[in-house]
Write a structure and sequence with these properties.
Blueprint (H helix, E strand, L loop, with lengths): L14 H14 L12 H8 L3 H13 L3 E4 L3 E4 L4 H10 L19 E3 L2 E3 L10
Antiparallel strand pairs: 1-2, 3-4
Helix pairs in contact: 1-3, 2-3
């Protein structure tokens, strides 16, 4: 499988976010199947002509959101997702507009914590028993 995300420096979203969104979409539409081995950080950075930090930040966000898993000395793999996770995943994404805007009083917490810091927007906390 060839991974060819289109990253554009002219867009408002940072490159790591564009890469994160690409992998997230590919995983959600099952273009990347469970347990698919993802390219190493170094290989993907060199292929896309971006810094290693860009790829590392995208992978760390995917890891934190449960889209991928890490195996020591082996790399990153697509995690197993169930349909409930995919349907609620867009709520947890730091770059979605469905989470509300800063200062909007729709209930819930008004801070969103993610890899680059804290943004003042609605954070939906999903509780499981």
């Amino acid at each position: 499988m060839e991974i060819v995300p289109e990253l554009d420096n002219r867009l408002k979203d940072p490159l790591y976010s564009q890469l994160y969104q690409y992998f997230k979409a590919e995983i959600e539409k099952s273009a990347l199947q469970r347990n698919t081995h993802l390219p190493s950080i170094r290989y993907l950075a060199d292929t896309l002509n971006v810094s290693h930090t860009t790829v590392q930040m995208a992978y760390q966000q995917l890891l934190a959101d449960g889209y991928i898993k890490s195996k020591e000395r082996s790399g990153y793999y697509v995690a197993e997702l169930d349909s409930d996770f995919i349907n609620s995943a867009d709520i947890r994404s730091p770059n979605t507009s469905s989470a509300g805007s800063a200062g909007e009083n729709t209930g819930g917490v008004l801070y969103d914590f993610f890899i680059t810091g804290c943004q003042q927007r609605k954070l939906v906390i999903l509780m499981t028993r």
